Amino acid sequence: MVFYMGFDQENIISIRDFSIDDVEYILKLAEKMEPIARSEKASNILAGKILGMLFYEPSTRTRLSFETSMKRLGGSTVGFAEAGVSSVTKGENLNDTVKIVSEYVDAIVIRHNMEGAARYVSDIVDVPVINAGDGAGQHPSQTLLDLYTMKRILGQIEDLNVSLIGDLKYGRTVHSLVYALAMFGVNMNFVSPPELRMPQGILHDLSKMGVSVKETTDIKDVINRSDVLYVTRIQKERFPDPEEYSRIKGAYTLDLKLLEGTETIVMHPLPRIDEISHDVDNSVYGKYFQQAFYGVPVRMAILQTMIKGF
Amino acid sequence: MVFYMGFDQENIISIRDFSIDDVEYILKLAEKMEPIARSEKASNILAGKILGMLFYEPSTRTRLSFETSMKRLGGSTVGFAEAGVSSVTKGENLNDTVKIVSEYVDAIVIRHNMEGAARYVSDIVDVPVINAGDGAGQHPSQTLLDLYTMKRILGQIEDLNVSLIGDLKYGRTVHSLVYALAMFGVNMNFVSPPELRMPQGILHDLSKMGVSVKETTDIKDVINRSDVLYVTRIQKERFPDPEEYSRIKGAYTLDLKLLEGTETIVMHPLPRIDEISHDVDNSVYGKYFQQAFYGVPVRMAILQTMIKGF
Amino acid sequence: MVFYMGFDQENIISIRDFSIDDVEYILKLAEKMEPIARSEKASNILAGKILGMLFYEPSTRTRLSFETSMKRLGGSTVGFAEAGVSSVTKGENLNDTVKIVSEYVDAIVIRHNMEGAARYVSDIVDVPVINAGDGAGQHPSQTLLDLYTMKRILGQIEDLNVSLIGDLKYGRTVHSLVYALAMFGVNMNFVSPPELRMPQGILHDLSKMGVSVKETTDIKDVINRSDVLYVTRIQKERFPDPEEYSRIKGAYTLDLKLLEGTETIVMHPLPRIDEISHDVDNSVYGKYFQQAFYGVPVRMAILQTMIKGF
Description:
Asp/Orn_carbamoylTrfase_sf (chains A, B, C); 42% helix; Rossmann fold; four-stranded parallel beta sheet; globular; 310 residues; 2 domains; 11 helices; homotrimer; aspartate carbamoyltransferase activity (chains A, B, C); alpha/beta
């Protein structure tokens, strides 16, 4: 690869550790991985290599996506898909478990319920660590595949209009995503009920980064001037009053009727409950299953870079 | 392959979707797979390919058999061995889970407790779907391996005398098997307690297909004129009265003494409880572990056909 | 391999089935495996081969270590990481499950809670069986990796001074290890509270083998003349009185202060609770994570020998 010499991540812990060059390096490499991800081409680039999958919290999509990526590149995985309660609660056990597994494998992917777990692990082991979600913290491969989806479908990330919709207060995914979008100078709209607004701290950071942001409670305010509607789930548990929840939920649900006539695409990190109607799935608007697919070439790019270097 | 050009299954959902040519295509290909299944020959025909294993109900044998088949052919698997209750109960989740997984893999094997689940899935995804058991419904790879076992051990399927023994009322396996046997003009005996007779609808279908069928309650009526005794489990739950169950169970149990002097083989889809005595296991009659082995070349044939075409 | 022609283990059930030549054969082969275990070299020696992993009891370390070993050699694994209660309790099911799995795979690794389970299984199947722990019984690959660790770090096993510390009464690991060390003429010290002394039967056997053994209750008696401190966990459940447990535990805990000035190494089969202080982990004394790594080349040597012959 001659197009970029600067990638210097030893671990993938937070998207905020990435420079714009780091992001572009991964996205460019992901594009080269696509024929392998589509099963049009076989690869043995990671033959003999082992990826340790330590999923202290269950996650079908992220786990299967990383496993698929490793195996499409000729590598193998070992690990566990969910931890006994005992291992999760004792910090000491986490320490020894990851030290031992790091003696077996070439890289570790970890999902853990404790914020900061992935960075803690990266400090104590000698192999690269990839954060696949640490509680309320980071999930950087999700952010990278979100960016890749925009680039592949819309041709670029720069200067897009991206509207983030739903729970912007608690959503881990959107918090990571907005910092990454800000790096690319994306114009953002934040659409949420007043109770679930984007946290002030993040709004402040974005303002300092010189990013244009608009806040609203109504999808209709943004739908005609958005290139991307990035929808997230509103969780019932956030509302003390179930009736309040029902009323609000309806206002942040997308269906085909609402989308018709627009020129936007709909993305979602999945799983959804009912914030996107099923009639959107096979329409020209619904891109969330394609987005799920793009997780494979992006994670291939991450795995190759972490295990083989660049 | 020039011996047959007609296989047109895009999915493997029910043995009743198969023509006799389809069945013979798979059985012939399975024979070519045997040296690989026996580990005498390595294969890379499915290198780089990924099989999604979605087991919403646990199944050690079927799952390990499909995994072994995929891996012996150089391919890989991803998936889960048992689903959380939540995913099983919500139809919507099944939809999104299989759509997402279908973005990662080259084919899906699914076992689900709901009858019709596999066909439902095959309608919504773009990769081939193989039914590994859907509740009271179908389990076509079991039927194909049953047929293959008869062909390999007895040289042919046509004109055999096959006696099906045990629970013929509720047994999913035997319901699929009899339609397949009927295609080959097999003479069938149905041996069961009166409470667990073959359903009238199936008897009617077989009669229309011109198949010779005899019903009896006594194994001794058939044991000397059977080429195959296909034994199934009688479940205690079918009987309100435990004494009735105990009495009946004994009359449908095979042991070596009963078999001596006959020229039959004993098959069983497994797992058994005690309907076949252990003294039959290593006798010339007991073929159920060999039958389990034949599941591998048959599933290899299925996987190659579904993933690589024919 | 011309250096040794005598290995005649068809299965790996107990270290006590091994001659000293058998042990040395595995240790020499493990040394050749190290570059593959370190991911410096890829191997396809077990390509197309399948290892059945039947873990009736969960075990992260042993399971991941065997899986890594198989996959680094180009092979694959199938199996389960923990059994439903039903399969564990019924002897009949164990019989049928292992018979069926043996029809799919090239070798079986089994962990089971019943002492003798692995030998029972090896008697009924036609593929090699490797015992990965059977209740209070044997765990021979652990003993082999313990020996390998001593040989690799200290250059030899013969004539070492090895002190075994902690629960010597119930510890499965140390019971296997002392017989193996005795074969190599190792001088042994047994350091334990009086309640947890090495059983008389084993002391008697060692005496008959002409091995020098010293017993003490105090680590300080041995620490300056030990090449190896092999530490094991003292389980709370062994003591009716919790205060007694707390008092004793402290006397069998190693920390850096105690070790300073000595020329010993510290080994541990893991997992530890707090019998070794974390300040030992990265010191020159702590070798237990390196010991965990050595499990991979040793198990590779076992797998190659069992599956490919020697």
